[in-house]
Write a structure and sequence with these properties.
Mean pLDDT: 93
Largest sheet: 5 strands, parallel
CATH class: Alpha Beta
Radius of gyration: 13 Å
Oligomer: single chain
Number of domains: 1
Order of helices and strands: EHHEHHEHHEE
CATH superfamily: 5'-nuclease
Distance between the termini: 30 Å
CATH topology: Rossmann fold
Low-confidence stretches: none
Structural class: alpha/beta
Length: 126
């Protein structure tokens, strides 16, 4: 699907979604309601979000428009070289794949974390 939008939620985006962030809510709504909109929650970022705001993991996992990305062997090998697993798993998930040939955009409430990294970002701050 050439017009598809693939978005990876980092841990800060997941926390923002649970605290009423309007932009995060819009992404979630579109992923549920519109064809071609896809949201992903990397497991390591989901764990970190739940540590920051307990209950976030259950909230995100219950959303029908969000796909939870497990930690498979290629992801684990990529994460092992990084200091922060949440950021590393989100960055890994945003890389191009056969299903997402252009990769994915990372939604974040902390865009400064991604400065200088080889990813595209959606800033969820107003």
């Amino acid at each position: 699907m050439s017009n598809a939008l693939h978005v990876v939620l980092d841990d800060t985006a997941m926390v923002a979604a649970g605290t009423g962030n309007v932009l995060a809510s819009r992404l979630i709504h579109r992923a549920q309601a519109e064809p071609g909109w896809f949201l992903y929650a990397p497991t390591c970022a989901l764990i970190e979000a739940d540590r920051a705001r307990p209950g976030t993991a259950e909230h995100i996992a219950a959303l029908p428009g969000v796909t939870i990305l497990g930690l498979d062997l290629p992801a684990a090998l990529a994460l092992a070289r990084d200091a922060t697993w949440a950021t590393a798993h989100a960055r890994y998930a945003a890389q191009p794949t056969p299903e997402r040939t252009d990769g994915a955009v990372i939604a974040t409430a902390a865009p400064q974390v991604w400065k200088g990294q080889p990813v595209r970002v959606i800033d969820l701050n107003p």
